[in-house]
Every structure is written in C-alpha cells, then in structure tokens.
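Changelog note: in this version the structure field was regenerated for every chain. One regenerated record is shown below for reference.
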Amino acid sequence: MVEDVLKTSEDRMKKCIDSLKKEFAGIRAGRASVSLLDKVMVDYYGTPTPVNQVAKVTVPEARMIVIQPWEKTILHDIEKAIMKSDLGLSPNSDGTTIRLAVPQMTQERRQEVVKTVNKKAEESKVALRNVRRDGNDAIKKQEKAKEITEDDSKRGQEKMQKLLDNYVKQVDSARATKEKEVMEV
C-alpha cells in the first residue's frame, strides 16, 4: 500500500521535472534553437497549430532559425504569430522562407533570463513538495485506518523524503545547466 503511494508520487514528480525541462527549452539562451518556437501557435485553417507542424524549422547556424512553410499561403500567418509571441524576434521573409536572426543577448537581459530560470525552478520545487505532502497525507491516512503499522508509516515517509531530495537535486541540476547556458557569451 505504501509502495503504491510512493509509485504514484514518483510518477507525479517525474512529470514536474519533465514540465520544467520543457519550460527551460522554451527560454531563449542567446543561441538559436528549434525549441524556441514550440509555444508559437499559427492560425491554420481556424485551428491554433504549432509552427513545427506547418513548416520545416531548421537551425543552419548558431544565431539563425529558418522556417520553410509547407504551404506558401501560411507564410504571413507564421510571421504574425512570431511577432505576437514574447520571443522578441523579428521575422525576415523572402516570399518562400522566413529567417529569424537571434541577436546576442545583453548582460542585463541575461540576468533577467536567469531570474526567470530561478523562478521556474523554485515553482517546480514547490510542486515537488506538494506531491510529497499529498503522499505523506495518504500514508498517514492508511496508518489511521489501521491498514499499515506505525513503523511502515515512518519508513514510507522517510522514503518519500528521499524521493523528494532526489528530484530537488534534478531541479537544481537542470537550473544550473540552463543558467550556465544563458550566461555563456
């Protein structure tokens, strides 16, 4: 029974880490990356669609993203979607492809991005602690209902804490990696 609670909690913690990594992938670090456009949605026949599903997105060089729409008619819609996004990039179109030049980030902008990275990491830690709390509550409920012994309850809570510590380390590691990537010149 305690194992079920631990398994469920671990699955939820994994989802927190996956979500954080997706968030970090969408944060601009001064170099071009296809994942920068993951959150940019294009109005495609009335349906919001990710750019990578309506065009070929490539990174031919460190500071350039090239978007080649599969249909020429959607070119202007992609441009509009990029302009509306919070990426701060200006699309250049030649009628068939869109080029996005990723500018060098200023030191001030890098520090702002690092603050955002730290905020996202802290939000993930809070989510992980909430999962631990829910798991511990479930274990305590089982103990109260006499489904498990007090010793099993204590061991389960200790395992839950170890699980949390492991995932908090993963958050710290991901944060440090992203911070280093952002601060590189």
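Spot check on this record: The beta strands are 41-44, 47-50, 55-61, 64-69, 91-93, 98-101. The radius of gyration is 22 Å.
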